[in-house]
Specification:
Blueprint: H1 2-10, E1 15-20, E2 25-32, E3 35-38, E4 53-57, E5 60-64, H2 74-111
Antiparallel strand pairs: 1-2, 2-3, 4-5
C-alpha cells in the first residue's frame, strides 16, 4: 500500500482515500503542493474534487452524494437488480398471458366471421 501511495503522490493525485472494512478504519489525504497531506478528521469530510461526503457508521463506510443521497452499497445494488429482474419476469409473464388472451379472442372473432385485423 505504501508503494501505491507514493505512486499516487508522485503523479499528482489530488485526493487519496483508504478504507479497511475489516477494521472499520478510514483515512484520507489531500494534495498540498507536491505532497499528499493527511486529512485530520476524514469522517464527515466533503471531498473538494468528488463533492461526496464520507461517514463512518458502526464501522461501515457510507458515502453520500452532493444532494445528500447515500450511495448504494454493492449488496444493495445486487438486491435492487434482483428485484428489477423479478419485476421484469412478472411483466413478461403478464404480457404472455395477455398475448394468449388476445389470440383466443381473435380466434373467437374469426369463428363468428369477423376479421380481427380489420377492426
Amino acid at each position: 500500500m505504501a508503494k501505491k501511495f507514493r505512486f499516487y503522490e508522485r503523479y499528482g493525485v489530488e485526493e487519496y482515500y483508504l478504507y479497511d472494512p475489516d477494521k472499520g478504519d478510514f483515512s484520507g489525504w489531500l494534495r498540498s503542493g507536491d505532497f499528499l497531506e493527511v486529512i485530520e478528521n476524514p469522517i464527515g469530510w466533503v471531498s473538494p474534487r468528488l463533492t461526496v461526503r464520507f461517514e463512518l457508521v458502526n464501522g461501515e463506510l457510507e458515502i453520500y452524494r452532493s444532494d445528500g443521497e447515500k450511495f448504494a452499497t454493492y449488496l444493495e445494488l445486487i438486491e435492487q437488480n434482483l428485484e428489477l429482474a423479478e419485476q421484469n419476469q412478472q411483466a413478461q409473464q403478464q404480457l404472455e398471458q395477455e398475448r394468449q388472451r388476445s389470440d383466443k379472442l381473435a380466434a373467437k372473432l374469426r369463428e363468428l366471421g369477423i376479421n380481427p385485423e380489420a377492426l
